Amino acid sequence: MHNICNRNTSNSLIYDCKGGGGRSNKCDIYDGGHGMRGSHLTLTHDVVGTLNIDGFDIKGVMTTNPLPSSGWISDSVAAGTALMTGYRTENEIISQSPGGQVLKITLEITEESGKSRNIVSTTRITHANPTCYAAHMDGRNAKNGVAEQPLTSGAEVIFGGGLRHFLPKNSDGSRRMEGMDLISEFEKVGYEFIEGRKKLFEVDKSPVLELFAMSYELDRSEDEPS
Questions:
Q1: Residues 129/165, Cβ–Cβ less than 8 Å
Q2: Which of 26, 69, 118, 209 has its CA 20 to 30 Å from the CA of residue 16?
Q3: 39-54 as b/e, with b when 16 or more CB fall inside 10 Å?
Q4: How many whole angstroms separate alpha carbon 137 and alpha carbon 145?
Q5: Are the C-beta atoms of 103 and 85 separated by less than 8 Å?
């Protein structure tokens, strides 16, 4: 935590990160824009002009349509699976094949090389796109089950929405169908649970979990992360 990251070139998403003890590591940042396609970039260019992405040394395009059994139109998890694993699957399926074979996520490969996996989302952690970073499931709508998977994902930092899927059944706002207190389960395996924007600047160790209610920007309080 509190790594100081400096770009090592002007046109790269690879950062030099100064971590604890003066160590220097490469940080690979994957920024997934939900539903973003070429037409969105074209429109943004027309409105604001040059974008940071224009300066990258390496750019590419890949298709994310699902397996033919799901037709040509991809849903979010099939597209996310293609991006995070390099394999196509059917709609509704998260980072695994229709037959249940687990597909290795890019972030799992980075862990094998000695790097940590951190997940930060501006929507619910259990939402379709972020689930592809940490879960393997055959149904995108099993959000309570999706919420449990990061427990064993090895992620050192988890920031995002979806608090309602972590609270036990009788808690205000909970969407769980049983009494499991998932926040307590995370704490049992070593996670520090924090709340509020100010706490983000005080964290000095990992693993850490923060969950917050997602508000539209016009409705967001000052203590709520944007």
A1: no
A2: 209
A3: eeeeeeeeeeeeeeee
A4: 8
A5: yes
Distance CA 37, CA 62 (A): 10
Residue type, 14: I
Mean model confidence pLDDT for the chain? 78
Of 220 and 77, the one with more pLDDT:
77
* Residue that has been written with the tokens 């309570």 in this structure: 144
Query: What are the sequence ranges of the domains in the chain?
Result: 100-219
| Rg (the chain; Cα; Å) | 18
* CA nearest to 146, candidates 22, 156, 187, 160: 160
> Could you give the C-alpha distances from 162 to 65, 66, 72, 201, in angstroms and in order?
27, 26, 30, 21
* Cβ atoms of 209 and 186 closer than 8 Å: yes
CB atoms < 10 A from the CB of 215, how many?
12
Nearest to 52 by CA among 33, 35, 34: 33
Helix/strand/coil for 134? coil
What pTM was computed for the model?
A: 0.74
Query: What is the spatial distance between Cα 214 and Cα 225, in angstroms, rounded to a whole number?
Result: 9
**Predicted confidence (pLDDT) per residue in 108-121, tens digit:** 887 888 888 888 88
Beta partners for residue 192, in sequence order: 208
E strands within 2-97? 4-7, 14-18, 24-28
Which residue shows structure tokens 């989302």?
Answer: 121
Task: Measure the CA angle with vertex 151, ends 17 and 158; round to 5°.
Answer: 40
Q: Rounded to an integer, what distance in angstroms lies between the CA atom of residue 72 and that of residue 139? A: 19
In this structure, the number of other CB atoms found within 10 A of the CB of residue 68 comes to: 9
Place of tokens 């929507």: 123
